[in-house]
Every structure is written in C-alpha cells, then in structure tokens.
TrEMBL record:
<dbReference type="InterPro" id="IPR001763">
    <property type="entry name" value="Rhodanese-like_dom"/>
</dbReference>
<feature type="domain" description="Rhodanese">
    <location>
        <begin position="22"/>
        <end position="113"/>
    </location>
</feature>
<protein>
    <recommendedName>
        <fullName>Rhodanese domain-containing protein</fullName>
    </recommendedName>
</protein>
<dbReference type="InterPro" id="IPR036873">
    <property type="entry name" value="Rhodanese-like_dom_sf"/>
</dbReference>
<dbReference type="Pfam" id="PF00581">
    <property type="entry name" value="Rhodanese"/>
</dbReference>
Length: 126
C-alpha cells in the first residue's frame, strides 16, 4: 500500500521500498525537465529510465492525458501489456503522481510513484 505524503500542500502517494523492490524490471519514467535532469534535482538520472518531461518545453500548462500519452508513445514508454510494472518520478513526487494517475487512466494497472530518482535508488539498495 503506497504511503501518503504531503508535498507543496498536496497529498501524493509514494510507493514503499517493499513495493519497489518487488517489481520485476519496471519501466522507469522520469517526468523532470531536461534542465532538472542535468541539475540532478531529485538525484542523478536513474539508470535505464526514460525522460518524458511532464511539461512541454516552454510551457507551464499541464498536458492533457492524450497529449502526454502521445509523448510517452513517441518515447517508446507505453508498454503493450497493461499490467507491465511502471515507476514514475520527478524531483520530489508531485509530477510523478500526475503521470502515474494518467497512466492508470490509460488502463495501466501496475503503476507506482517512486518520488525521485534518489528515493528509488535508496529503496532498491535497502
């Protein structure tokens, strides 16, 4: 069961260490901007992750589910199997939660918000 955490005045649900360790070869989607990845906001890039920024370059408007699904598809980050393990993250978990919710809305059933690259790394190292 994910743990409830408050970030920036909003409640998000982060996967527990046990949940993340139990996943077999998950797809990891990094929702940070390229600048955040370069600055290591939330940690260095998680090895093997796919960077699909939540916000389109130069935009502060959140994408629709359809718009983000198009970007995920273009990045080959939409598995064919709806039960494929997927972990989302950003710098702290807020956008990771939004991406996880969008993926669930697209019918994916094994989606987990890892929070940040550092939190995922820590969970897998424990």
């Amino acid at each position: 069961m994910p743990r409830e955490v408050e970030r920036h005045g909003k409640v998000i649900y982060l996967a527990t260490e046990e949940e993340l360790r139990a996943l077999q070869a998950p797809l990891v989607i990094d929702a940070r901007s390229p600048a955040e990845v370069d600055a290591e906001d939330g940690g260095a890039k998680f090895a093997g992750s796919v960077n699909v920024p939540f916000f389109a370059e130069g935009s502060t408007e959140p994408p629709t589910v359809e718009q983000y699904a198009e970007r995920l598809s273009a990045a080959s980050a939409l598995p064919a199997a709806k039960d494929a393990p997927i972990v989302t993250h950003c710098g702290g978990g807020g956008r990771g939660q939004k991406v996880a919710d969008m993926l669930k809305g697209l019918g994916y059933t094994n989606v987990h918000n890892g929070g940040s690259a550092d939190l995922i790394r820590a969970a897998l190292a424990a």
